[in-house]
Design a protein that fits this description.
Helix content: 40-55%
Strand order of the largest sheet: 12-6-4-3-2-1-14-13
CATH class of one domain: Alpha Beta
CATH superfamily of one domain: Phosphoenolpyruvate-binding domains
Protein name: Isocitrase
Distance between the termini: 33 Å
InterPro entries: ICL/PEPM (IPR039556), Isocitrate_lyase (IPR006254), Pyrv/PenolPyrv_kinase-like_dom (IPR015813), Pyrv_kinase-like_dom_sf (IPR040442)
Largest sheet: 8 strands, parallel
Structural class: alpha/beta
CATH architecture of one domain: Alpha-Beta Barrel
Keywords: Lyase, Magnesium, Metal-binding
Organism: Microbacterium telephonicum
Cofactor: Mg(2+)
Strand content: 5-15%
Radius of gyration: 28 Å
Number of helices: 19
CATH topology of one domain: TIM Barrel
Shape: globular
Length: 531
């Protein structure tokens, strides 16, 4: 990235070459607009963010304490405000990403209206949200730089050369709000060609990392719903290949594929795997099937049978024409899924679990790392888990196993608020607080995300406001609960005209029309009430 002054000089030289027709063009204004439009295409973003993820993955391999994090977002504005908040409070976006949740696309972005997470929403909604997110993140860059340019002009008018030099250094070292997005492609929305076509659209919109799961595309369920149906490994590998081809075709040679397995909670398969010899991948998949031993004479009409050595077995088939796996095989199937995916071109793993339990995750990761030592996870810190209850139960069970007196606690009622300020409650909260750090150190979790937190925060904050505004508090509910907090906590949206781009537009008008520009940010703009 060239320095601000280098751009000004280059544009000034170009202006001189063109001559009189460009007399009205201000080289510094052009340099400002270029700085505010650093990324011109989604593919530039995809390459930039893929490089970030690869560096972060290498850093994690060297030191498991440097894990990465994201929050799921469902609108460009939400993603933008998240990254603005991170820069404000934590000073850097380093190791912080965005997550695009298929659940939230289905629930909040479908033209059909709210839908469950079953791949019924329009597939085009996914790349559209990626593009929207990056539009808002780029606008956050433009706004932040615009504020710096305003300060630069003020320093010049005041003749403060020290301040001017400092602000120039801030412009040259500006950290973008553009960060990697891990984007959910569900089970691929169809056959491998459909997966490839959608993956291309997602990458063209800016996605550097695509997460795909091993469920049947037309029977896809949320990872925390019942009725999940997996596919044989060969089917899933074809879709991993489809995503890789999409990356390579578009020139993102280091694009990241996250292979998710739902086998821990999936007890069904739609079809039997093809196998040519004992012990091959298809045979291993079929070995997990729940079967009955049969004889040729006992077979009924339409029965499907397999041979296991000299034994004839009949997979248990449901009325839905789905086949069942043996209970208790989920973890073993997850391990096989993960090893197979990494050997077939995936870069990161996602094991969807039913609870947040570090040792459960670590047990599977240990087995995977016996074969692939640098295996790494993306882990869903899901709102579908009752975190308070799970960790209080874990604390209770640990104390009981150590012979401690747990008679003061009712394990069946541990959500009760009476336990909030007890030793057990405090221990559980501390384990929740350190969960990401501990899981990254013990269980190979490179990236922690919460899939749909902003779905819940939007509902909670709206409930708070509606309860007061339509109740006795009236307007005070908004003023005390929202606006006053925005002012005192430095939330930039209090100047909502500025956040929406009004000042950027005013400056552009001045570039284009000079003193004749009709600007919105004059003395009568009520936004001036906020200083």
């Amino acid at each position: 990235m060239t320095t601000y002054q280098d751009d000004i000089d280059a544009i000034r030289d170009l202006k001189q070459q063109v001559g009189a027709p460009w007399d009205a063009i201000d080289p510094e204004a052009v340099a400002r607009m270029r700085a505010q439009n650093r990324f011109r295409t989604g593919l530039e973003i995809a390459q930039y963010t893929a490089d970030i993820m690869r560096r972060d993955m290498a850093a994690y391999d060297a030191d498991a304490s440097v894990y990465t994090q994201s929050l799921g977002v469902w609108h460009g504005f939400i993603g933008q405000q998240k990254m603005i908040s991170i820069k404000k409070h934590l000073k850097s976006t380093d190791k912080r990403y965005l997550y695009l949740s298929g659940w939230m696309v289905a629930a909040l972005r479908s033209e059909f209206g709210p839908l469950p997470d079953q791949s019924m929403h329009e597939k085009t909604a996914v790349p559209a949200l990626i593009e929207e997110l990056y539009t808002f993140l780029r606008q956050a860059d433009a706004r932040e730089l615009d504020l710096l340019f305003t300060k630069l002009d003020e320093a010049r008018r005041a003749g403060d050369e020290t301040a001017e030099e400092f602000i120039r250094s801030q412009i040259d070292s500006h950290e973008t709000h553009v960060v990697p997005i891990i984007a959910d492609i569900d089970a691929g929305f169809g056959n491998p060609e459909a997966t490839y076509l959608l993956a291309k659209k997602m990458i063209e919109a800016g996605a550097c990392a695509i997460q795909i799961e091993n469920q049947v595309s037309d029977e896809k369920q949320c990872g925390h719903q019942d009725g999940k149906v997996t596919v044989p490994h060969a089917d899933f590998i074809a879709k991993i290949n489809a995503v890789r081809y999409a990356f390579l075709e578009l020139g993102i040679d280091n694009g990241v594929i996250v292979a998710r397995t739902d086998s821990l909670g999936a007890g069904l398969t739609q079809k039997l795997a093809v196998t040519t010899e004992p012990g091959d991948l298809g045979d291993r998949y079929n070995s997990f099937l729940d079967v009955d031993e049969v004889t040729a004479e006992s077979l009924g009409n339409g029965d499907v049978v397999l041979t296991r050595g000299d034994t004839l077995v009949r997979p248990k088939r449901l009325a839905s024409n789905l086949y069942r796996f043996r209970p208790g095989t989920g973890e073993e199937r997850c391990v096989l899924d993960c090893i197979t995916s990494l050997r077939s071109g995936a870069d990161l793993l996602w094991i969807e679990t039913e609870k947040p339990h570090i040792e459960q995750i670590a047990g599977m990761v240990d087995a995977i790392r016996e074969v692939i030592p640098d295996a790494k996870l993306v882990y869903n810190n899901s709102p579908s888990f009752n975190w308070t209850l799970n960790f209080r139960q874990q604390a209770y069970d640990r104390l009981a196993a150590q012979g401690e007196d747990v008679s003061a606690y009712d394990r069946a009622d541990l959500m009760n608020a009476v336990y909030d300020d007890t030793a057990l409650g405090r221990e559980a909260d501390e384990r929740i607080r350190s969960f990401q750090r501990d899981a990254s150190a013990r269980a190979g979790v490179f990236h922690h995300l919460i899939t749909l937190p902003t779905y819940h925060t939007a509902a909670l904050s709206t409930d708070d406001l509606a309860k007061g505004y339509f109740g006795d508090e009236g307007m005070l509910a908004y003023v005390a609960g929202v606006q006053r907090r925005e002012i005192r906590e430095g939330i930039a949206t209090v100047k909502h005209q500025n956040m929406a781009g009004s000042d950027i537009g005013d400056n552009h008008k001045e570039y284009f029309a000079g003193d004749a520009a009709l600007k919105a940010g004059g003395a009568d703009n009520t936004m001036n009430q906020f200083g």
